[in-house]
Amino acid sequence: MLLFAALAGGRIWNAGWRATRSIPAAWFAWAAIAGSVTFLVQSVTVFPDGPAMLAVAASVLVLLALTDRESPASNLRLAGISVLLGALPWLHTRFAILSAGFGLLIAWAIVRESPEPVPQRKQRLAWFLAAPIVSAIAWSAYFQIIYGTPNPAAPYGRRPETSWAFVPGGLAGLLFDQ
Hints:
There is one protein chain. This protein has 8 helices and no strands.
């Protein structure tokens, strides 16, 4: 877990530097994120948030690299980040939204790479999309085999804890329960 946190911290510093080209700004960004209670607590506990931090930090770095003409992201790097994004939903269902969001942003950035010819952009998109597509099919098949439905909300029953049905009771408890 500490290794994941250390790698994520390095990616955060690198993303801060790539975005600003300023070493003090990169250290400030790193300190603001790595010094937060959430980062510190999640970096030493056995929860899926530590590895997810690494995938998110690496995704931000790839997004920045796709807009950088001096050192663009290689096909191997795109394939690597796609494996990380494909693994996110396997860590916890709530990470599927992060995976899909970063996947769409990176795919859009690849498609919009203007100096690259269209066939090369299609090849880069294929490098990026291969692992997430296989992972999504396997993830849906997992829920189909275990729960009889490809719906990832199946393990949480008919009324997951995020249901609107819990809002009145939760709000009453927040306001009136001392």
